[in-house]
Write a structure and sequence with these properties.
Helix content: 25-40%
Strand order of the largest sheet: 6-7-8-9
CATH superfamily of the largest domain: Alpha/Beta hydrolase fold, catalytic domain
Radius of gyration: 18 Å
CATH topology of the largest domain: Rossmann fold
Number of strands: 9
Largest sheet: 4 strands, parallel
Structural class: alpha/beta
Strand content: 15-25%
Length: 208
């Protein structure tokens, strides 16, 4: 039986391929067959900061009108950018991952948070160190440093990024903020409805 070779996906920053600062690359497999799908570079907070600064340096971009947008892991990285870059135009974050790690791991049994649970289950003596380390990558802590206006969204039936962890980041967000709540949606969130709302907020912000 022929096995397809895994594709390699890196980062694209400032118009060219870029390696993640961490050097981390994750292998992805087809769950049903175990066959390799891709090798994907894992972006982190420093990579987001690089991307924002690269966008600002582009001569076609007004550096005073740069916004960040993302959902799930991208939502967590948008919060990281908001905490690291002081003068963004707008932060748009949907069902952000990487928020309130401790609570997330204690209330759900789905990946990716459950990966931490499995590790701590084996390495019991390292639990405090694990969560101390994760606190440096916690969207709640980045939110507390953020100043730009923000639009959050949360889905109350989300079993990937629990609603209470999203509200934790929202409640700690230091800048002006709004949140859209989707009571009957899971991790798919508001989809096209939320996308349209974000475009409207962005248009208003861009006009000043």
């Amino acid at each position: 039986m022929a096995v397809a070779a895994a594709r390699n996906y890196g980062l694209f920053i400032d118009g060219e391929a870029a390696e993640p600062v961490s050097g981390e690359v994750r292998s992805l497999v087809e769950p049903a067959t175990g066959e390799p799908l891709a090798n994907a570079a894992m972006a982190g907070e420093a990579d987001v900061d690089r991307a924002v600064e690269a966008a600002r340096a582009n001569p076609l971009v007004d550096p005073k009108r740069v916004a960040v947008n993302g959902g799930s892991q991208g939502g967590g990285l948008a919060l990281a950018a908001a905490g690291l870059v002081p003068d963004l135009l707008l932060t748009l974050t949907d069902v952000p991952f990487m928020c309130h790690w401790r609570r997330a791991t204690e209330i759900i049994d789905t990946d990716p948070y459950h990966e931490v649970v499995r590790y701590c289950k084996i390495h019991r003596e390292l639990t405090d160190r694990v969560f101390r380390t994760l606190s440096y990558h916690d969207g709640v802590n980045f939110a507390a440093r953020a100043k730009s206006p923000a639009l959050f969204s949360v889905a109350l039936m989300d079993d990937i990024c629990p609603p209470s962890t999203v509200f934790a980041a929202y409640n700690h967000y230091a800048g002006p903020k709004e949140i859209e709540v989707y009571p009957f949606n899971g991790h798919e969130n508001g989809e096209s409805i939320q996308a349209e709302l974000k475009m409207r907020r962005l248009a208003v912000a861009a006009r000043g």
